[in-house]
Amino acid sequence: METSRPAGVRELPIVGGHLALDFANTVDDPEGPARFDHVATYPGLLEWSVRVHTVSATDAERLAALPDPADALARAHTLRSALGALFAAVTDGAPPEPRHWAALRGFAAEAVANAELVPEGSGYTLGWPRPRRPESVLWPVAHAAVELLTAADLARVKRCAGCPWVFLDHSRNSSRRWCAMNDCGTHAKIRRYVARRAARRDQPAAGADTGG
After folding, report:
1. What is the model's pLDDT at position 167?
2. Could you list the mean pLDDT of each consecutive 10-residue stretch along the chain, which spans 212 residues?
3. If you ran DSSP here, which 8-state letter would residue 89 be given?
4. d(Cα 29, Cα 120) in Å, to the nearest integer?
């Protein structure tokens, strides 16, 4: 399907390491001059869903043809807000607010109610192989969020040191600080380099007469 991004807007980096976290991160540069909401429209939501492989391109084309997806889009923003708040609380070491869990719980219950058992390995997993409603693209996200909130991996959820994005730290010693080393990590390196150069310029030269 065709991209919904205006010219000059970059493709959204997918760096969260988990479906629910990636959905929470769908506003690029959220506090900067290049801020862009990649799921501000229903076509944008479908485009993102195809990128993360929760729906096929064929299913996305069919969903795009359904009438009046405005309610599904509003619900997507509600879900994203709830996930952002829930995982922000996790990274702050605070208990999630009941209202945010209540919002996610409604989406998760709907997801399970519409799920099918899909073979996976020697068993099954929940899946939504034939999405027919505009809001069906939200079900894998909601289900994944509940799975993460109730898993041991929750302790590995972190917030980027350079921006508000959240990510799952899979590094061996849990030392990852950036959503992406070639994004916020690079910007931080540049800032440190500029600061060191400025500090050296401000230092008096060795042996210089400092008066007195």
Report:
1. 97
2. 83 96 97 94 97 97 95 98 97 95 98 96 95 97 98 96 94 90 60 47 57 51
3. H
4. 36
The whole-angstrom separation of Cα 194 and Cα 170 is 30
Region for residue 209 given its phi and psi (left: phi exceeds 0; alpha: psi -120 to 50; beta: otherwise): beta
Using an 8 Å Cβ cutoff, are 69 and 134 in contact? yes
Alpha-carbon span 185 to 56, nearest angstrom: 33
Closest CA to 48 of 90, 5, 111: 5
Number of C-beta neighbours around residue 19 at 10 A: 20
Contacts of the segment 85-89: beta carbons below 8 A, 24+ positions apart: 86/145, 86/149, 87/20, 87/21, 87/24, 87/157, 87/166, 88/159, 88/164, 88/166
Give the separation between CA 47 and CA 11, rounded to whole angstroms.
11
- What does each C-alpha distance from 90 to 5, 12, 96, 105, 156 come to in angstroms? 31, 24, 7, 17, 10
Sign of torsion over alpha carbons 70, 74, 79, 80: positive
